[in-house]
């Protein structure tokens, strides 16, 4: 049976509340919107997972399933880091988490846009890393994908500085020591 993401009343209230951002944030958002609130076939049983193939015909590894399952638990309006995910799972590395999310066949149901770098930088999106002058990844990296990631997060109430850093550290799912 496919998993269907539902919102609780408190989540709906949070999404409906109006937000404003400071001048040094990228976007001004009028209403929060949960971009992962969609219907998608997401295999839950071991049998369905063992037979699932992506559009490219590839199988999803157990590590990727673990990353996707954890990422699904991150609520709208919050973010986690690549490192937080591998520590919570007890396996992999921040790079292996990033690789799994780069190949996420369940976006936006598995909200990979809610994962940022450990230094609270916007991180990567669709294989690109960074924005504008900070973009890395060779000639093909325009920084536009990470700008899109910031726009998606802004719709969910998560804002970043113009340099690309998380504006409100309290939005981290797993707090800092």
Describe the protein's architecture and organization.
By secondary structure, this protein is mainly alpha-helical. It contains 6 helices and 4 strands. The strands form 2 sheets. Strands 1-2 form a two-stranded parallel sheet. A hairpin with a 2-residue loop joins strand 3 (124-125) and strand 4. It starts with 8 loop residues before the first helix and ends in a 22-residue tail after the last helix. 32% of the residues are buried. The model is unreliable at 1-29 (pLDDT under 50).
What is the overall shape? globular
- Average pLDDT, rounded to a whole number, is 80
The end-to-end span amounts to 39 Å
Provide the gyration radius in Å: 16 Å
Structural class: mainly alpha
The main pleated sheet reads as: 2 strands, parallel
* Share of residues in helices: 25-40%
Number of helices: 6
| Low-confidence region ranges | 1-29
Q: State the order of secondary-structure elements, H for helix, E for strand.
A: HHHEHHEEEH
Describe how the helices and strands are arranged.
Elements (H helix, E strand, L loop, with lengths): L8 H8 L29 H6 L10 H11 L7 E2 H8 L4 H9 L12 E2 L7 E2 L2 E2 L14 H12 L22
Parallel strand pairs: 1-2
Antiparallel strand pairs: 3-4
Overview in brief:
With 177 residues, the chain is mainly alpha-helical. The chain has helices at residues 9-16, 46-51, 62-72, 82-89, 94-102, 144-155; strands spanning 80-81, 115-116, 124-125, 128-129. The protein has 6 helices and 4 strands.
List keywords for this structure.
single chain, 177 residues, mainly alpha, 6 helices, 31% helix, globular
